[in-house]
Amino acid sequence: MTAIDTTPPLPAEPGPVPDAFAASRKPVMGQQTWAWIGITPFMIFAILFLIVPTLYLVIGAFQDADGHFTLQNIADLFTPSILNAYWLSIKVSLASALIGAVLGFFLAYAVVLGGLPAWLRPTLMTFSGVASNFAGVPLAFAFLSTLGRMGLVTVLLRDFLGINLYGTGFNLLSFWGLTLTYLYFQIPLMVLILTPALDGLKKEWREASEILGASSKQYWTMVALPVLFPSVLGAALLLFANSFGAIATAYALTGSSLNIVTILLYAQIRGDVLHNQNLGYALALGMILITGLSNGAYIWLRARAERWMR
Fold first, then answer.
1. Which ranges form a coiled coil (predicted)?
2. Residue 197 near residue 305 (C-beta atoms within 8 A)
């Protein structure tokens, strides 16, 4: 007699569970069409106000007044006066970027991790959002009214404290005066950029370091600062590019007394004495290269920082 196997069959292995929302997440043809329509205004804006002007500047930098090809405009960039203008702009941008990065870092740290009252953070973020976009003629007028030779703070220091601010060598219409003015929007911009990075520091990292016996100094020097370094350096590069391309504030504040490259560029394109439009295009091309390298490095560093913050 043949034995009958009474062992119950094993249950079949469960197959993949269909995602009920997968189909709804896949865009259909109509949704893709509306998505392209939604992005069209941005693409038109970028083409008309970014790509086309940039191409126009690049072509004009290699032409003379009659439209003929020439390398003279590029060669003129290496004259002493233009090199000095570039170098002065780089120094102002570096000074404002470094000082703004340091002060902005400690300001953001104070409201995010410093244990200050909770209402200070939204107040600071609101102010930073406004101040980072406050530039141009209004900012120059505000500083002239505050720290000019007859500004409010200058007069108060002279009349009540006996301090002659301009007698100490300070001058608002100078290198450090322009740097101080730029800091008004550089520091808030650093706060806005760095706050998400500070929020991304995981509590588990600090707890793990404390369990292993690390001090607070060791945690910051060996864990937190190495993680934050790409974000801080990238933000400083963005501050550099932000101040390097500024013209309205510098022109309204100093006029032509400070020979930075943006003012020289304005004089070459719109001026009556130094008018050479194609040389102005070459100056703009040099600025595009410098700011492009700075922004490219910022994007690369931001991508590195985001890998740690995930």
1. none
2. yes
* Residue 13, CA distances (Å) to 10, 16, 20 in order: 9, 10, 20
Task: State the chain's mean pLDDT as an integer.
Answer: 85
Give the span between the Cα atoms of 26 and 22, in whole angstroms. 6
Domain boundaries, the chain: 80-309
Fold of 80-309: MetI-like fold (1.10.3720)
Q: Where are the beta strands (DSSP E) in 37-125?
A: none
Taking a C-beta distance cutoff of 8 angstroms, is the pair 120, 107 a contact?
no
Query: CB neighbours of 162 closer than 8 A, spacing ≥ 6?
Result: none
Are the C-beta atoms of 192 and 125 separated by less than 8 Å? yes
Locate 79 and state its tokens.
Answer: 């004259």
β-bridge mates for residue 69, sequence order: 63
Q: Is the Cβ–Cβ distance between 268 and 275 less than 8 Å?
A: yes
**∠ CA 35-37-41 to the nearest 5 degrees?**
115
pTM metric for this prediction: 0.82
Q: pLDDT tens, 7-24?
A: 555 555 555 555 554 555
- Which region, left, alpha or beta, applies to residue 305 given φ > 0 means left and ψ of -120 to 50 means alpha? alpha
Q: Which of 68, 64, 88, 67 is nearest to 76 (CA)?
A: 64
